[in-house]
Amino acid sequence: MGVVSKMYCKIWQKDFAKVPIATKELIFRDLQLTYQWERTDKTDREMLAHMSAMHRSWRSKQKKRHFNGKSLDDVIASVPAGVDSSDWQTMCEIWTTGDERLIF
User: Fold this and answer.
1) What is the pTM of this model?
2) Which of 56, 49, 43 lies closest to 17, judged by CA?
3) Tens of pLDDT along 12-23?
4) What are the residues whose beta carbons fall under 8 Å from the beta carbon of 61, sequence distance 6 or more?
């Protein structure tokens, strides 16, 4: 699930609830190929909630590991593996300004 979450949800996005419907369908397609579960509205909601929690936890770990206690220039230069550098810069700017309203 972690690989799927990183493919379809940028680090600066808060969760999966607001990703486009077409993106959600791609997520479910990929997960169904791996986990073979029966899709219902309930399982879709549960999967999105679980993936959102995993994503928020991963973001928090990246912040602790790469952001806290460093200068903005050092933080931007230490892009975590698997994260696009422009997405990382956006996330760092959001963390620096504290403007969570920018995250969707």
Assistant:
1) 0.75
2) 49
3) 887 777 788 898
4) none
Residue given tokens 């696009």 in the structure block: 84
> What is the C-alpha separation between 77 and 84, in angstroms, rounded?
12
Contacts 24+ apart (CB under 8 A), 50-53: 50/1, 51/1, 51/4, 51/5, 51/9, 51/15, 51/16, 51/27, 52/14, 52/15, 52/16, 52/17
Side chain identity at 25, as an amino acid letter?
E
Structure token digits, residue 73? 């220039």
Amino acid 69 reads G
- Are residues 26 and 8 in contact, defined by beta-carbon separation less than 8 angstroms? yes
> What are the residue ranges spanned by the domains of the chain?
2-102
